[in-house]
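ok trying again, last paste got cut off:
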Amino acid sequence: MDKWFNVGKVVNTHGVKGEVRVISRTDFPEERYKKGNTLYFFSEKGKDPLELTVETHRKHKNFDLLTFVDYTDISKVEPFKNGILKINETQLGHLEEGEFYFHEIIGCTVKTSAGEEVGSITEILTPGANDVWVVKGAKGKEILIPYIDEVVKEIDIDNKLILIDPMEGLLS
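nice, full thing came through this time. structure:
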């Protein structure tokens, strides 16, 4: 059975020439949205995925704007609204040591180096210089953990465990 990984959600059309507005959920937008790359569209109705080839990509505000080969006007992409763009696991590239895919990090349990459980990672934000991991704490509180060497000390993907050395005030 195929394993699929989310790349982004189509939230709207943009203009009349078949461009769609995507909220990106990928670690590598420049790679995923490169001209000629294949993405798979999954509709809300859950039919078989539709194979799409990226024609153009550009950034606009907080969105990635994409067009696809043979989808040249708004009427053809209107049905894409609220659908999800995915890649197949065979499209995942090799990462260097110390690099991870979002799906490997999300769901990991975070503990301090002193052994105190902080919670589990529910989301990854990519605001700028470094990623920020959103951790749902034991009391339901969201804790933001910067993915920097000073804080994140060990990542064990096989055991879904991350050890941190929190800065003062990070967990309060």
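cool. The helical segments are 29-32, 74-77, 102-105. The longest helix spans residues 29-32.
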